[in-house]
Structures are given as C-alpha cells and as structure tokens.
Design a protein that fits this description.
The protein is mainly β. Helix content is 12%, strand content 41%. The strands form 5 sheets. Strands 3, 4, 5, 6, 7, 8, 9, 11, 13 and 14 form a 10-stranded antiparallel beta sheet that branches.
Length: 335
Amino acid sequence: MKTRVLLFGILIFNFLSGNAQTVTLYTPKGHSVYAFTRDEMSTSDITYWTLYYILNYPLADAISSASTTYNCHSYAWNMHEGGPVCWLNEYPDLNKYWTGGSYKETTVAATAIKIFYYNGDHSAIPIPFSSKYESKWGEGPLMQHDPGYGPLKYNMTDRKYYTGAISGPSIVSCSGNVNFSLTPTPSGVTWSVTSALNIVGSNTNTTLTVCKNPSTSLSSATISAVVNHRGFTYNVSQITGIETPPPPVTSVSASPSSVSWSSNQSVTVTAYPSITSSQGSYQWLVSPTSGVSQSPSSNVNNITFSIPGSYTVGARTYNSCGTQASYITTQVYVY
C-alpha cells in the first residue's frame, strides 16, 4: 500500500512539474481531441504493478506490462487505430468519437468494435474470433479479459457498444451519382443496397457510389456493409432518403384578385400545397409579363402591375425528378 501511495504522489508531481505535453488527436471524422504524454514509471514500479494485476485478477491475461504512458481510452480509440502513445481522459471530449459521427452506437454487442464502460470511465476493444475484450487497466498492464471481469471501479456490467459509421447524403437525388464511405477506414468491405438504388462500379471499394434506380417509386433505401476492421468483421447499415417527384400544385389563389394599377398595391399569389425545399421548388407564371414585378418566396409570390389588363398567374412544382406537366392558374384583373 505504501508503494502504491508513493507512486501516485510521484505521478501527480510529474504532471504538475510540466512533464506532461499536450497532444492533439483527431477522430476519423477529423474532430480534434485533447490528450497528453506522460513519463514512464521506473522499472521496479512496472514490475510491481504488472505482477499486482496478474496476481489479483487470475482470470485475466496480461499481454503487455504496466505503463503510465497510455491508458484505456487512448488504447481503444486512438492507438489501436494507429495513433500515438499518449494518455486520453474521458473528459473533456472523448465523446467526440461517437457524437461526431465517427462511430455509431449499437445494441448488438457482437457487432461492436469499441466498448465504453459508461459508469466506470473505461474503454475496451473486442478480440477477433473470441468472446474476450482487450483493455488497458489504468496505469496497469494491457489485459485480455471477459467483458464483465476486471477492477470493480470500472462497473463492467454498464457497457455501451459502438460500431463503424456510414457517412453520406441524407437524400439521393434523381440525377447524378452520390458517394457513401465508412469510418474508421476499413481494411475490407462488401456493400449492398436495397432495390431503390443501383450500385455504380464496384461494391468492394472503400467508397460506395450509387444512383437512384429510375424505376423505383420508393422514398427510402437501406445501404449495408460487411466490414473487416483490423481482423474484426461487423455489419453496419444506414437508411437514406430517395428523392421523389414533388407534390403537384393543386390550386392557386390571388389576394386581392382585382387591383388598381395606379395604387402600386401588390397582389399576393399563393400556391397550394406548400412543399419543403427538400421536396422541390416552384416555377411561377405571369402572362402577359409587361409592367410586372415579382417577388417569389417558396409558395408565395408578391406581384405588382403597372399596366391595366387581365393577367394569368400560376405555379407548378419541380425538382431533379421532373417538372409538373402544367401550371395551375388563376386570373388577376388590373384596372
């Protein structure tokens, strides 16, 4: 116990004395994460703490000696992906790895490539072709262990599971190709899509290129991937929207429908129904066009007239899937 207290005091002294150097890590999606380097403990302390965990946790295997240079979070989220040796705390921003879109939470433990013990400030990775996990136990050794076996402070029954994430557009339009990719970058992948999409090129490239199936009337599709990541195989999928022809204009109103040209009063023309920008846009018709000034915004067009006469005003919807066949119109009288 005396050795343990002394070691803790030495580590705190080293940190406060400036031996810790700031390190900026980056998630697979490019978000910066604060970490720092730490000096290694003495050879005798390495031996002591390695043996301590071996003797006190006989159902786990030490695969690397104790070290103060890195911890569980750094090993699982950073070093295992090829990052530098450093110490990464849960706070302030470990959560950027999953809130920033680099990883996706899953309820299926078998598909996880990262595990976070949310009530124990601990992280682990699964061992390929095994039911065991691998994690660094604080300043102790790197250990292989059952998911629920380890120091009590880690509360090892409280786990969240994270798998890789698919990134891409939320909607596939009717025109052109779009790309989807995976984070972290896999060593191998096989993509598949449901019938609303067509794969353009290979389905085994790191980036998947798709386009809308022109014969589909579906408004969504599922993109799936069987991923190999550092010897571990997992499945991940994502639902994406499919652009469809916009709802057509069914009626048009003008208020007022009769106006004096000399009053400089505008006429508010409204097209129904109102559609969102993700569904499409409106095209406006005013005939004749002489002496007309328009100010359209979404499904409303404010129009002023400087020449007396009878005017036809109307609207129709369009997007990359096509344009409504004809304008829906009403009349405005200018006296």
